[in-house]
Amino acid sequence: GSFVMNQSINTTGTCLTIQANNITLDMNGFNITGDATGFSDRNDYGVFSDGYDNLTVYNGLVDRVFYGFRISNGGDINLTNLTVTGAEYGFSLTNVDVGYLTDLNASNNVMLDFGGYPIVISATSSFIELDGLDAFNNDENIQLYAPNSSYINITTNDDLYPSGQYSNYTNITVTEGYISNPGSNSVYRNINVDST
């Protein structure tokens, strides 16, 4: 089914849980705002889906939850034009087989008693296409671990771990941070790093 938000939402826990296949959510430019401050709020999600396929979410912002978008054990995941701030994990994908991530922003993700990862794509995911990520002023690093994937058009001042094997990393600019743990058998093109 298709759903369209018609207002912003304030939440004290998990806001939206997806429990079906073939769901499209248009956030319609609205926000999800939580009240998370640290590890005690680790079960607070902006958008959560575990075990479902063909999910599309686009055009919105999530702020102050532990996980902005927590997607696991699914396939054909589409995330477009989304922003996460003030989270421990901006975008987290685990055991996702085929994902399309476009025009994401994960900045100022800082937890008071923990950290703040802009995006984590686990090594148990595969065939991820990330095209367009701006990530600035986060407490922790960007982790792009999924193999057989494509990561292009990334700009950040955070540290970057481009560790997916058999993957393509193209048009990446890292200011102030560094790149570490590159994946084996991967291709790196137009990589610019200024760690000064």
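The above is record 1. Record 2 follows with the same two-line structure.
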Amino acid sequence: ATVKTVSDCDCWVLDGPIFKKIVIKSVLQKRSTELGFLDKVNLFKNLDHFEKLSLLDGLKAQWFNKGEDIVREGEIGDLFYIVETGHVECWAKILNNKKQTVDRVIRKLTSGDHFGELALINNERRTLTVKCGSMKAKLLALDRDTFNRILGTIESYLHLDYSEFCKSMDRNCDQDETGNNITHNLSVLKDGDGVQ
């Protein structure tokens, strides 16, 4: 392309090699920071360095504002999510002691936590609604094909992770925040299933 001035101006010139060096340094620093974050995510502890690099190539950043739906119960699940900053809330439909169905927060997920994988593994619809709980949240999303290719090797760990969660649900969720007895409509969370 040809670039012409339309008025008097001062231009700064940067040599190609210097520009490339600056860009490469910036990219390497960014990747190092992102790898450092993945190293802190317990889910990825069994992935080697090259698998983590492949994972980074597939992750796409998404931003949400407080109260915004990230996934909705009943939707077809096509993405797996990792919370990078902020926190999200998992909402379930619950029967209270008056046999009325109410929406309640049953779990909060913060930096390094993940959700959405079981809908991909089991080819099922989302079983919970997940909303942004902080003023802003940054999530890393992975599509179904990349998820299956890279994370298929840790599927058993995912089920184990949610088996422990279900045990804690059985122990700790007999009352809502006001102390009323409640019955959960969380059969989908049994037998190792979890936040889809």
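The first strand starts at residue 60 and ends at 65.
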